[in-house]
Design a protein that fits this description.
The protein is built from 21 helices and 27 strands. It is α/β, with parallel strands linked by helices. It folds into three domains: 260 residues, Aconitase, domain 3 (2-Layer Sandwich); 139 residues, Aconitase, domain 3 (2-Layer Sandwich), CATH 3.30.499.10; 173 residues, Alpha-Beta Barrel (Aconitase, domain 4), CATH 3.20.19.10. The strands form six sheets. It has a seven-stranded mixed barrel. α2 crosses α5, α6 packs parallel to α7 and α10 runs parallel beside α13. The termini are far apart. The structure holds alpha-methylisocitric acid and iron/sulfur cluster (SF4). Iron/sulfur cluster (SF4) binds next to loops.
Length: 649
């Protein structure tokens, strides 16, 4: 090496992918980076809004490498609304060069992993579990629909300059445990808050003991940590998976350089993992199966984007082979994709599951989002999905526990929580060849180009997207609601029975904060009529959970101009900014205590504060306090204009 030649820095996987996609900012200096997005995905519940916003950008066709529109959330079709949304999405896909995955094809994240994910690429999806793609070595990030629209139009996506935590895996999982127990272990250490801005990167000798679907289970539920994303290297296991999916050419090797540094490193010994479960009502509320053993169970639901791969459902079939589920427990199974169903049909697993008394459900999100299969009053429901927020199952009084497929299957046989290590089933080997059938992906031949002149089909439930207005100089406002810590987007904008209004903001806005204060909508409109703005006051970790931008867009529609919180989660914070709502953090968290719902608040010179250092003085009754919004220059512009859409010429 020449004397003055700069030695290249040893990079971890995260830094390699980011460096290859960096278009704005310097990781050494700036707090925000712009990265180029190769692939995008949308699902129907967030997709309609994303595409309505994309349409208003006036771009003839998508400009990124690959855009896929999946239909997997709203597939129950009670009433015309869901089906109308599907037609709208199909026509948009045809016109703009997007691949369209029909309802019944499967769950977006499972399908994307199987058919499109590529190591080393970036993926942006309008769903918080997009990091599933990290299992195949992608930087895959969840975001609001409008951010996906911008990426499809060729624009960059902005992330906080990440800190990378290296999670070194050593050893091998004991029989009866699986990837779900690993991520529950990670959640027990890091919790569901305080991880904003981090990327979790897995490395070490234990990585090769996990197949790609298992890695994807771990990165999928990284969403519950609140990290930007999680990523695994792309190694010989990834190569084998892609070859088995007839996509050998999509493989590249991607591992951390020798000596690569992380901002923090922790080691997990897989051989010490034991079966875990997340107790009600948070994915971070971890207990051991051993402790809960013997608890009576009423319902067991297996599937969702976390645990619906062939490996997962085959494991369940092996455990139930020749047996029957307990009389007083209902068991539902939703596979992740048609590929999974076809494989289970071919190897006899499907027949085993039917014979064992399982209810076979559609390959879709279904139960996970509370679209159906709500448990009975006060039920204990064991589920293999990723979120157990109160009421998400559709039954407020239900006690939902998140478990591995192994624990679910063992418990199904007795109707009580069982430790799967007692009678572990044989490990399912990674398939040598997956059956390929892409027939339910439409418009593959016109991908990226689109079909000019295609007419967009718009049913009566598809309403135009409201635009924000520029931020006023000062605000006279009302504290429209005061909520506690860990308020999720399911509290702000419920899904389940309300999901069908995703494409109709005036209608959906009627349900903002329905689980916390059903009068929120009416009160907000009355305040607006009286010339007052609305403000949301919240505790720690406000906006946990989903990427649904409706949790910002609908409040914007109801005249919410600011959120005052102790802390705000990444995706929701970005969504607030995209819709012109100022995300303020209390300078002194104690000021939260003194505020009451219905109280008048005055933000003098709020516009100047946003333009300047972000600090605002708030008058509330006789007292005053300060709060700060830390914004990049790009974010300031969006807020001042009244949001991203309003900022476009
Ligand atoms: C979820 O799991 O909460 C969802 C439904 O998939 C959401 C997206 C949505 O609200 O449509 C997510 O995770 O982003
Ligand atoms: Fe669908 Fe549930 Fe996954 Fe969300 S978490 S994408 S609702 S399966």
């Amino acid at each position: 090496m020449k004397k003055n030649m700069k030695k290249t820095e040893a990079l971890n996987v995260t830094r390699k992918i980011i460096a290859a996609h960096l278009v704005e900012g310097d990781p050494a200096k700036d707090s925000e980076l712009g990265i180029r997005i190769d692939q995008t995905l949308t699902q129907d519940a967030t997709g309609t809004m994303a595409y309505l916003q994309f349409e208003s950008m006036d771009v003839p066709h998508v400009r990124n490498e690959l855009a896929v529109s999946y239909v997997d959330h709203n597939t129950v079709q009670i009433g015309f609304e869901n089906a109308d949304d599907h037609d709208f999405l199909a026509s948009v896909a045809k016109k703009y060069g997007i691949i369209y995955s029909k309802a019944g094809n499967g769950i977006c994240h499972q399908l994307h992993l199987e058919r499109f994910g590529k190591p080393g690429k970036t993926l942006l999806g309008s769903d918080s579990h997009t990091p599933t793609g990290g299992g195949i070595g992608m930087i895959a990030i969840g975001a609001g629909g409008i951010d996906i629209a911008v990426a499809m139009a060729g624009g960059a996506f902005h992330i906080p300059t990440p800190k990378v935590r290296g999670i070194k895996l050593v050893g091998k999982l004991p029989k009866g445990t699986s990837a779900k127990d690993v991520i529950l272990k990670v959640l027990s250490t890091y919790g569901t808050k305080g991880n904003v801005g981090w990327i979790f990167e897995y490395f070490g000798p234990g990585v090769k003991t996990l197949d790609v679907p298992s890695r994807a289970t771990i990165t999928n539920m990284g969403a519950e940590l609140g990290v930007t994303t999680s990523v695994f290297p792309s190694d010989s296991v990834t190569k084998q998976f892609l070859a088995a999916q007839c996509r050998a050419k999509d493989w590249v090797e991607l591992v951390a350089d020798k000596g690569a540094k992380y901002d923090d490193t922790v080691t997990i010994d897989l051989s010490k993992i034991e079966p875990l479960m997340a107790a009600p009502h948070s994915p971070g509320n971890i207990v051991t199966v051993k402790k809960m053993k013997g608890t009576k169970v009423n319902q067991i639901m297996i599937g969702s984007c976390t645990n619906s791969s062939y490996r997962d459902i085959r494991t369940v079939a092996l455990a139930l082979k020749g047996k029957h589920v307990a009389d007083d427990v209902e068991v539902g199974i939703a596979c992740g994709s048609r590929q999974v169903v076809n494989m289970l049909a071919a190897d006899g697993s499907l027949a085993i599951l039917v014979k064992a008394g399982c209810r076979i459900l559609e390959n879709a999100c279904g139960f996970c989002i509370g679209a159906h299969m709500s448990p009975r009053t006060g039920a204990v429901s064991l589920r293999t999905n990723n979120r157990n927020f109160e009421g998400r199952s559709g039954t407020k009084s239900a006690q939902v526990y998140l478990v591995s497929p192994e624990t679910a299957a063992a418990s199904a046989l007795t109707g009580k929580v069982e430790d799967p290590r007692k009678k572990p089933v044989a490990a399912v080997p990674a398939p040598k060849k997956f059956p390929i059938d892409d027939e339910m992906f439409l418009y593959r031949k016109t991908a990226r180009k689109g079909v000019k002149g295609t007419e967009i089909v718009r049913g009566p439930n598809i309403a135009p997207v409201p635009k924000g207005v520029p931020l006023a100089e000062s605000l006279k406002a009302v504290c429209a609601i005061k909520v506690e810590d860990k308020i999720t987007t399911d509290h702000i904008m419920p899904a389940g029975a309300r999901l069908k209004f995703r494409s109709n903001i005036p209608e959906y806005a009627k349900f903002v904060f329905e689980p916390c204060d059903p009068k929120f909508h009416d009160n907000c409109l009355a305040n607006v009529k009286a010339g007052l703005a609305n403000v949301i006051v919240a505790g720690e970790s406000y906006g946990q959970g989903s990427s649904r931008e409706h949790a910002a867009l609908c409040p914007m529609y109801l005249g919410v101009k600011a959120v005052l919180a102790k802390s705000i989660e990444r995706i929701h914070r970005a969504n607030l900014i995209n819709f012109g709502i100022v995300p303020f953090i209390f300078d002194n968290a104690k000021d939260y205590d003194s505020l009451k719902a219905g109280e008048k608040l005055e933000f003098a010179d709020i516009r100047k504060a946003v333009e300047g250092d972000g600090k605002v003085t708030v008058k509330a009754g006789g007292k005053t306090f300060t709060a700060t919004t830390s914004l990049s220059d790009r974010e300031k512009e969006l807020i001042l204009a009244g949001g991203l859409l309003a900022s476009l010429k």
